[in-house]
Amino acid sequence: MSTAKYIWFNGEMVPWENAQVHVMTHALHYGSSVFEGIRAYKTPQGSMVFRLEEHVQRLFDSAKIYRMNIPYTKTELMDACRHAVSKNDLDSAYLRPLAFIGNVGLGLNAPKDVPCEVIVGAIPWGAYLGEEGLEQGVDVCVTSWNRLAPNTMPTGAKAGGNYLSSQLISGEAKRHGYAEGISLDVHGHLSEGAGENLFLIKNGVLYTPPVTACILPGITRDTLMTLARDAGYQVREEAISREALYLADEMFMTGTAAEVTPVRSVDGIELGEGKRGPITAQLQKAFFGLFDGTTADQWGWLTPVKD
Ligand code: PMP
Questions:
Q1: From ligand 1's centre to the CA of 94, what distance in Å?
Q2: For the structural domain made of 6-123, what CATH number should be given?
Q3: Is the full-model pTM beyond 0.90?
Q4: Contact partners, residue 75, CB within 8 Å, separation at least 6
Q5: Which residue has a Cα nearest atom 7 of ligand 1?
Q6: 176-217: per-residue pLDDT in tens?
Q7: Which of 104, 116, 215, 269 is at 20 to 30 A from 36, Cα to Cα?
Q8: CATH superfamily of the domain spanning 131-292
Q9: By CB neighbour count within 10 A (0-12 exposed, 13-18 middle, 19+ buried), where does 8 fall?
């Protein structure tokens, strides 16, 4: 397990081992937390946080859906993220802001307007599905677990409780020897991976499930849609059938942790040439180019860690 020296905890930097909560914490019992995953990259211009503002906005959006009261401003939390990287002497890092209902009693609904507790952790973290996966592509399967139905729990909120669904999806896939599991929505259309959004490429066109397919609208998904359109590709958000997976020329998954990971097979069926495809490689290069300086950041996506 990766650790660091400090965690930002309710406005202060506290030593890692002192960042503790009580066992009666509401979120521990009822999943009442919202969180983010953000990466900071080492770039030629110094350490940069990727799409910090959008991630912090999504944290506040998730909290709004659950009527949770985050007692900090967006600017304060953006500063906390940057500080969590620099205070731990990291230049690349995975950041974990988390807002949760604390030890406020066991009533299912927390008392109105009770402030959340908030932490920001920053740890070193490499390629989520492995360095080799980024180059060779990974083998995935469709799991037997559907993604949450839209009128059960909102997948547009990045809430702790949603990740029980993700654990079932990825756990089943891993037990069967796959790198990751992908799920269908309750209507049987393609939804998303346990922690990634999906892109298929067919005849030079990119396809990705729409937000109505019960996905988390990923910030990396938005990044890749922008980079692909910028490179002249058509990107379509539309309902995708399961069999379209098997017939795709190329496929990749996106996420803050997974970055841009090519998929070389689904359910044991090879896609295209059974390795990373050329358009995937081109878009991967454009994505990682944002951090090695070969793709100009014309969108203002990088925020310096240091003032
Ligand atoms: N879907 C789920 C369920 C996720 O957990 C994630 C990771 N946050 C994503 C998609 C990808 O989102 P992002 O690109 O914003 O990290």
A1: 13
A2: 3.30.470.10
A3: yes
A4: none
A5: 195
A6: 999 999 999 999 999 999 999 999 999 999 999 999 999 999
A7: 104
A8: D-amino Acid Aminotransferase, subunit A, domain 2 (3.20.10.10)
A9: buried
